[in-house]
Design a protein that fits this description.
The protein is built from ten helices and nine strands. The chain is an alpha/beta fold and 247 residues long. It starts with 7 loop residues before the first strand and ends with a helix.
């Protein structure tokens, strides 16, 4: 692959993701094949966040560029991958996801239109239950109010650099802080956050499998507490849910 002038850089933070990463990489390969600008316009970077399994070897065998990031923070992994990226447009996606075949065309259209500073594709869940659907509906209410979504999150490289990337001082909610910073940047020039239609990524439900289909409600309580205290570094909570969650 010619990495000199790619259009897109897909950055995947990954810690012990050898089980789920192949699904994501396969979906990216399909999306690259569907992109009219050609597969070489898209580079794939796996930011290996000090994995102890075969994540790095698997990613390299699939043709991805592997960047080792030893600082065990999700924000650091995203930033570490972006430092090696050469694309005009940066795309961030979790390793346990899968992307839509038309993802890159949709992102390119949103960026070229000019009114979008950054955005996301949104997600659909890989399984359903009453708890999951209730949680999804609640989450979508917040999405509509805030215009901040998840899935494949994208922005221009120069804008990423302007806001300083993801906040590595946070153990969690760095993705929310990132989009808030992007929204503030966009307002200075009449741009907004974008929510794409028709290209939702597939979101893993493994956290619901592990903690229960209604667990997001106790998580929200922690989030509200952090919002009022300004403390986004509850290590016990972060370790249980993200950093030492059994992988």
């Amino acid at each position: 692959m010619n990495r000199e002038h790619p259009k897109f850089s897909v950055i995947i933070p990954a810690y012990n993701e050898e089980k789920f990463l192949p699904r994501l990489l396969d979906s990216i390969a399909v999306a690259r094949a569907n992109y009219s600008g050609g597969a070489k316009a898209i580079e794939v970077i796996v930011a290996d966040n000090d994995s102890t399994d075969g994540t790095a070897a698997l990613a390299a065998a699939a043709g991805a560029q592997v960047v080792t990031v030893t600082k065990r923070r999700i924000a650091a992994a995203r930033n570490g991958g972006s430092q090696k990226a050469k694309g005009e447009i940066l795309c961030f996606i979790d390793a346990d996801s899968a992307i839509h075949p038309r993802t890159f065309a949709a992102i390119e259209e949103a960026i070229n239109e000019g009114s979008t500073v950054a955005g996301a594709t949104g997600v659909k869940l890989e399984r359903r239950s009453l708890g999951l659907m209730f949680t999804y509906c609640l989450a979508m209410t917040m999405v509509w109010l805030m215009r901040m979504d998840t899935g494949v999150v994208f922005c221009r490289r120069e804008d990423f650099e302007t806001i300083g990337g993801y906040d590595e001082n946070r153990l969690y909610a760095e993705d929310v802080a990132f989009l808030l910073a992007m929204r503030s940047l966009g307002r200075t020039r009449g741009q907004r956050l974008g929510r794409l239609r028709g290209v939702k990524a597939l979101a893993s439900t493994r956290k619901f499998d592990q903690f229960g289909d209604w667990h997001l409600f106790w998580m929200m309580a922690v989030g509200v507490k952090s919002l009022f205290t300004g403390n986004w570094n509850d290590k016990k909570f972060a370790d249980r849910y993200w950093y030492n969650s059994g992988r």
